[in-house]
Structure formats: structure tokens, C-alpha cells
Design a protein that fits this description.
This protein is an alpha/beta fold. It has nine helices and 18 strands. This is Capsule synthesis protein CapA domain-containing protein.
Amino acid sequence: MKAVFAFAVCCFALVLLVGVFGLFSTMPGEASQFFSAALRFPSQQEPKAATLLFVGDIMLDRGVEWQIHRSPPVGGGGDWTWPFQHIADFLKTADLVFGNLESQISNTGNNVGSDYSFRADPASIEGLVYAGFDVLSVANNHSFDYTRDALEDSMVRLKKAGILPVGGGLSKQEAYGLVIREAGNSKIGFLAYTNSGSPVWAATETNSGIAWIDEDNLEEILKDIRTASAKVDILVVSLHAGEEYEPEPNQFQKTFSRGAIEAGADLVVGHHPHVVQSLVPHTIQGGSHGWIAYSLGNFLFDQDFSQETMKGAILKLVVEDKKIKEISLLQTRLTPSYQVELIE
């Protein structure tokens, strides 16, 4: 008897469900849409594409600062957004923007004595924030232009402004450590090193400094890259190396960059030559490959003695489903008053 009763209840419920479905299917408007939506199962989330932009050398001292202080309005210069006013809207379309900072942002420290020592006004950070920078390498041959004090101060100021420094730190662990930012639904990792400057600037367990690389610690660095690649979806390695004003990479650039890709990096971005060098793929065992941009040239620098040093490149990377989907180089130029423009 119980079995018969249970069967009858099931039949009644089935008839009721069919009747309700028929009622809502014949009703126009919101009622029908609501019922259909209730029956719909959630679909798998579509991969979210992210755009990453990488620029070259940035220097906010010397001639760049001079132009900023004489920029409009007349008599009221000092607008640190001036160099970026023609390029900021484009940079802000990206999910993440990276560059190489060649002038410490500080009012501390003292000039080490070089004619090419750079230190930018603390107010200059306003321009970097306005332009939309997220991560900046501080590992280069100008890191110690105003001693360790200025480097430490500059890194603190960047962090307070929401910009992550990479390639420098208060200890070896921090300077050589992995910096991670999210873009879209991908985890992007950054490492930065310099082969230009001095090995004595290298951070230690007890002293601040930068991430120095040469033939002596190359294998150790490649191991760090292997470890880092397992922690992120896309790994970017920045290298400050090469010969100034040379259009071709030197042997160290090639050796390190290829080794970094083989160790697990997806992209190597180069700085220091102050002119644009080639963008090339590097195939590794198994058929996969990474990309090497040997030098992105000058993004913002006062080297107006040649056309090549007044031009640069922005590397555009589109990441989708945690992989590089598109990569391209976009040309930039500097106006005589040191404003960055995209060459259409």
C-alpha cells in the first residue's frame, strides 16, 4: 500500500511540474525569463584576457626635470605629469604597466661623484602614479648614484605610492625575490637583475642593495628562475645589461636571456642600451617557447643627441587562459620637451 501511495505522489509531482513549466513557457515577459533563468545551470567562467605593457628606461632628473619646470602654464611649471600627458591614457588601458627606473626618487644621500648621477625630486612620483605604473625595476647602473640611503628611500616611496619595486631590497631575499601581481585571472611574477654597475652593490643578508648577476652567480639565478616559474602563471624577468647605443645584444644578454627562458621564464625584458633591440622567440625542448625583448630603448630620457635615443618601444602582451596569446612592439618617440608619444 505504501509503495502504491509513493508512486501516486511521484506521478502527481511530475504532472504538476509539467503543468507549471507549460504555464510559464506560454507567458511572455519577465515571468518566463525568470523561470528559464532558474532552470539554467551556471556555465564555466570564460578566460579573462589581460593586457600587460612594458616600457624602457625612465629618468626623471637633469634635462627632463628642467623641461618639467618650464612646461605650461608659463611661470607655473613643475607639473610632473607633463612627460606622460600624451601617453597616459594608452598606458591606463592596460591591466599592468612595468618599466625600468633609472633615477632614485629621493632627497637623501649624496652624489657619488659621477657626471651621470641621477636622483629625482620626490614629487616626481606623481608622474609615475599618473601614468599608471604598477611595477618598476630598480636594478640598474644608477641604483647607487646617491648611495644606499637614496635607494632605500626611493623603494619606500614607491611602495607608499602603490608601485612595487623589483630587483632591489633591504636584504638579499627581498632584492632577488619574486614580486607578484594579478592581471585578469592570471598571476604575473617579476624578477629583475642587473649586469651593469658594480657587484659590490649586490644585496646581502644584512645590507640593502640590488640583484646583481654575472657569470659567477648565473647558475644560482637560473635556479631561482626555475623555482619562481612554478609559483606564477606568467614569469617576466627584467635584465639590465648590454652595450650602450648598440643595436644588437651582446653575448651576455643572449646567454642569460636564453637560459632564463629555458629555466621557465615566459618573457625576458631588457634595458640599458638606450636604443631598441630585437624582439625574438626562443624555442625550448618540447617545442614550447618564450620571448626575449633585448632592449626597449628609452621611454623617458634626455638623450637628444640622436634619433635612436629619442625613440623607444612598448612591449604589449596579451595574456589569456594563463598563457601568452599575443605579443607586439609599439613604437614611441620623445618630443623636444620630453613628452612621450605613441607613434601610430
